[in-house]
Amino acid sequence: MDGSFDPATSDLDFLVEFLELQSGEHFNAYFGLLEALQSLFGRPVDLVMTRAIKNPYFLKSVNQTRTVLYAA
């Protein structure tokens, strides 16, 4: 954490990975999780799928600061 979180305006960022799902199930899993987290925290949430990160510098930065919240 870099201390830049502002409780009044900041969103929450989550790095997510889904198990192998049928094609249409990814959509439901992604947006279902997004809506549930936004409802739970009462603020905007960004979900980023790990495999969607193509920039190696960004991925390195993410890996240095990530914290596992749930693993199945």
Question: How are the secondary structure elements laid out?
Answer:
Blueprint: E1 12-16, H1 23-41, E2 45-49, H2 56-65
Parallel strand pairs: 1-2
Structure description:
This protein is of the alpha+beta class and 72 residues long. It has one domain. The protein is 40% helix and 14% strand. It has helices spanning 23-41, 56-65; strands at 12-16, 45-49. A two-stranded parallel sheet has the order 1-2. Helix 1 links the parallel strand 1 (12-16) and strand 2 (45-49). The chain is globular and about 40 Å long. The mean pLDDT is 86.
**How are the strands of the largest sheet arranged?**
1-2
Overall mean pLDDT: 86
Radius of gyration: 13 Å
C-alpha geometry: globular
Element-by-element helix/strand order = EHEH
Helix content: 40-55%
Major sheet description: 2 strands, parallel
How many structural domains are formed by the residues?
A: 1
What are the salient characteristics of this protein?
2 helices; 72 residues; single chain; 14% strand; 40% helix; alpha+beta; two-stranded parallel sheet
Give a quick rundown of the structure.
This protein has 2 helices and 2 strands; from the N terminus they run βαβα. It is of the alpha+beta class and 72 residues long. The chain has one domain (12-65).
